[in-house]
Design goal:
The protein is mainly beta and 262 residues long. The protein is 6% helix and 31% strand. The strands form two sheets. It has an eight-stranded antiparallel β-barrel. A two-stranded antiparallel ribbon has the order 2-3.
């Protein structure tokens, strides 16, 4: 997502370090973020509480058919995209060519697996018609977080996931705000996936809990520029305006990847 953007790398001190979201949050300072060679020990899983207005959680065109077995396992979070919190235009919105792209010196790993013993209501069941639960583990140098999502309608709407309960992990010590909302699977193949996260203020009026962001996941730690551009266009067609982008896994030696052998 680096075409026609105002791109800054981690040696540019003029860029404020945005607090983005929660995995499945958005980006805070990074465990691998460097400023003139200095490494910060914070996390890229954070929260953004600087927006104004009421969060609009759009109903996006989700992938209608989804092979959950195909998307399970290990992924690299190669980009985290923060979206402007605003209703989309009726005919979609063109991407803002002036958003800031920042390179983060870390390579987070995401692990997905099904909780086969429980349905969406948390009851042990072999009947998947009532939905299933998916676990998501985010691991980076600064720590880890585990999320739980239900898929209420696996047959007709497999691309809509809803958060269940609170997150757990060592990153809770980094002023983490719990994510409560939905995940929409915009695109998913065996090698790449685009997930859009959205939550409304909870409790009502707690604006600091608003979140709207997308994760770009890849089986490989490198993302082809053509695919990055395609994702940018895909998000724009869904009416999601890009406010900023964090690129990860760039120029990071293989032996430096965060828990790459999960």
């Amino acid at each position: 997502m680096n075409c026609q953007n105002n791109k800054k790398n981690d040696s540019d001190r003029s860029l404020p370090w945005f607090l983005l979201i929660v995995v499945v949050g958005l980006i805070n300072g990074s465990s691998g973020y460097t400023d003139n060679g200095k490494t910060e020990n914070s996390t890229i899983i954070g929260n953004d509480n600087t927006g104004n207005g009421t969060l609009y959680c759009p109903v996006l065109k989700r992938q209608p058919a989804l092979d959950l077995k195909q998307i399970m396992g290990k992924w690299y979070a190669v980009e985290v995209v923060k979206h402007k919190i605003e209703p989309p235009a009726p005919d979609g919105r063109k991407d803002d060519a002036h958003h800031v792209t920042t390179t983060v010196k870390t390579c987070p790993v995401v692990e997905l697996w099904p909780d086969d013993n429980y349905n969406s209501k948390g009851n042990k069941s072999e009947d998947k018609s009532s939905g299933i639960r998916i676990r998501l583990l985010w691991v980076e140098d600064a720590g880890d977080l585990e999320y739980s999502f239900s898929v209420p309608d696996l047959g007709k709407n497999p691309g809509l996931w809803r958060s269940e309960g609170q997150q757990n992990g060592t990153l809770l010590t980094h002023k983490y705000v719990q994510f409560a909302g939905s995940v929409q699977v915009i695109k998913a193949t065996g090698s790449r996936m685009v997930l859009t996260f959205c939550s409304t203020p909870s409790p009502a009026g707690a604006e600091e809990t608003r979140q709207l962001f997308s994760f770009i996941l890849s089986r490989e730690h490198r993302l082809q520029e053509s695919f990055a551009i395609g994702v940018q266009n895909l998000l724009a067609r869904h009416g999601l305006t890009v406010e900023s982008v964090k690129e990860t896994c760039v120029n990071v030696p293989a032996n430096d990847y965060s828990n790459a052998d999960l």
